[in-house]
Task: structure prediction
Amino acid sequence: MLRPIRRVAVLGAGTMGSQIAAHLANARIPCVLLDRLPISPTLEEEKKEPTLADPLVRDRLARLGVETALKSHPAAFFVPANVALITTGNFEDHLNLLKGCDWIIEAVTENLDVKRELLKKVEPFISPGAVVSSNTSGISIEAIAQGFSFLPSWLGTHFFNPPRYMKLLEIIPATGTLPEVVERISWFGGEVLGKGIVVAKDRPNFIANRIGVFVHLATLEIMQEEGFSIEEVDALTGPAMGLPKSATFRTADLVGLDVMAHVVQNLYESLLGDERRADFRLPEFMERMIESGLLGQKTGQGFYKRIAGETGDGSEILTLDLGTFAYRPRQKPKLDGLEMAKSIGDTRQRARALFQAQGRVGHFYRQLLGRTFHYAASRIPEISDDLVSVDRAMQWGFNWECGVFELWDAIGVDTVAAQWREQRITPPPLVEELLAAGKKSFYLESSGQKSVFDLRRADYVAIPEKPGLLLLSSLRSCGREVKRNPGASLIDLGDGVLCLEFHSKMNILGPDTIQMIHFGLQALEENFEAMVIGNQGANFSAGANLLLLLLSIQEGEWDEVSHAVRAFQDANMALKYAPRPVVAAPFGLTLGGGVETSLHCARRVAAAETYIGLVEAGVGLIPAGGGTKEMLIRALDSVPADDDADAFLPLKAVFKNIGMVTVSTSAEEARNLGYLTPDDVICMNRDRQIASAKQMALELVRLGYRPGEPRQDVPMLGEAAFSKMKLALHLLRRGEYISDHDALIATKLAEVLSGGREWKSPGRVSEQYLLDLEREAFLSLCGEKKTVERIQYMLKNGKPLRN
Result:
């Protein structure tokens, strides 16, 4: 009988082990982290530190793993305080701690003998019903556990690095693994750890790395064959293709060329029956780079190298010249057809256009995608019985926007097959079966139900939807969209709950969004019980529409600017005091105006990875959609009803966070910053976020939600608080930590937070009074030349200007 997973052990405190432990702590799961004893100190070292008799020395490697995870960038922990959930120890003294663990994860070095030797030592301490797994990227799961008694509860669990951020978790059963063990870890990994689960076969490097490494090596081969430069390849294999910005060579630098070499060598040695085995070899230039210590980010130089700028201000990125092996300035690639294709927003349509393009661009994509499609199709059913697992592995493990077979459908199965016929390439059995059955695509969608071609049946089978998920795209295809404009939509989630979905570029908020907020509130009053504000795009919202604001400023349309700000304030206040509950579902980038909308909702169900902050100071402004007002209210309402309580302390924190453009690194940190309240919920699995927000909204209805009335009693601290904030600004300016314009912006912010310059002593004001102060400060800053420069720079470069 399998027991619930309440405590986990991780064996091995290296990079992966310590970061897996950190993510378990993020999920509030107590964790034991063990490692080997450190090498015994020499006599000379004993003079400087205690001997191995000291427990702190014996546990040093495990503690070092935790310390490294605490210092890692990006952060392994949601908040540093989560480290308290990790207990460290060593393999000699603390194996008894495993008896209280429900899941034991072996995460030591990628060596079969080392793994088996440790498991022999661990085996007597494994409690009945506990699951045991190996975190490995390619060693046979069957071979690791051969002969051990815990085989029925044994499997492979391949977390992708870094475990906190990478969604994919491959689960690899062995021959004797009980189905319920796979089911239990799949549930825990998905629901508690927030992972995307793919069950893979015990084949070399499983699914994602098998396909991903092939694609990487095929890219390098085509590069050499066709004479493409490093910059050209990265331009072709980044967002244009629906792949991450790091593309091919930046990814290699991040992973480390030595790590890549190890993975490629492992595949070459393991793939004895693979028809493309010869392709799993590093090109000569990469071997030369490894010999020269050009390993990427870990050595400060790889395909790219960052150096200080000539003036000492900023930095410059150089590119390795593969001909001379010297670094040179980066060159902007000029690839006809690529820029035009980038203007196509839909990844599938863009992929089709690139595949059909003329010249070098089209030739590159036809070569790369043709080889990728052929290899992936040839691996069915070797690495997986279904295409969906392959596609999800590439999306979740390598951050592809579309999976291999989804991209293939976009280009056309017939189109690719015709290319192969011209090249006299025999299609894989999967493709022959598909075409022989009269099918033209791998996926089929009808009335919201998606199906996929199954090789064993030579027909489509329905892709089962996980219970509890709500997919807005599926609801839309089923005719559940109530209303739509270019910026947002209203979708019926069922059970009397409406969803307001943003879908503009980066989900920026403009007049269309404000209009849809009012449409949604009207529908809420007439036909629905509650409303959710959320979407399933890349980010919740990057804020308000800066381009429209800049155009209005440049045209001197000050009444128009004032009207737009007032309209946004009114919309947010309407959300706050809607007669029925509105729940926000922020995730990813939630900035500026997106934060202000979220703040005014009754509750929030935030994804664990939510990066939330009022960032207006970065473009020379202050939050004016009610954000300054709402954070002030939260801060002062948190002050205890105690004569000795210092009300300025929480106000000071708000002043600092808004003025210093502080953005949370997680939803948990956002709670500490005041953007989320204790009543808000953090959702580890983003796939379930909309469904969870819907359930919270219905729960508020069940509890008899009442919105209250606009506040008339907001505390104001007056001139005393303003003077303290001005003094802090004076000291920062004298120390040259901020510019004159930073000081001006922060002064305007201080005026709003203290109640305005005319508010001499503490008192109470209305919310509308604060909104008016916000709007006045915002408009005055819009008239500043340096603010206009900041807005222009942000729109052009996507990052703030310090002027």
Observations:
- The longest strand covers residues 488-494.
